[in-house]
Write a structure and sequence with these properties.
The radius of gyration is 13 Å and the shape is globular. The longest helix is centred in the first third of the chain and has 18 residues. The chain has a two-stranded parallel sheet. The termini are close together. The protein contains 4 helices and 2 strands. Strand 1, helix 3 and strand 2 form a beta-alpha-beta unit. Helix 1 crosses helix 4. The chain is mainly alpha-helical.
Length: 87
């Protein structure tokens, strides 16, 4: 699995811009009501990466858990704050 995490870690800084251009972000934002997510909801986001859903919500999601085997995306999401790695 290390080669997979290396793949995503090496691309983390540009992942959001390359794979989620503004048109895609607008579509994701339009889909949010269909997910039934409201302010303060508890969310589990697996494969979080740099956190695209955080960037398309207009509200504070509230409580939740994030998980990703590739740590660089999570570090970007957390503003560079080191994260705990569980193996």
């Amino acid at each position: 699995m290390q080669h997979k995490t290396d793949f995503f870690d090496s691309r983390a800084k540009s992942w959001e811009d390359r794979h989620y251009p503004q048109a895609v972000r607008r579509r994701l934002k339009a889909m949010l009501p269909k997910f039934g997510i409201s302010a303060g909801d508890w969310i589990l986001d697996i494969g979080t990466g740099p956190g695209i859903f955080k960037g398309v919500t207009d509200f504070d999601i509230g409580n939740g858990q994030i998980a990703d085997a590739a740590t660089q995306g999570l570090a970007i999401l957390r503003g560079g704050v080191p994260i705990a790695i569980i193996k």
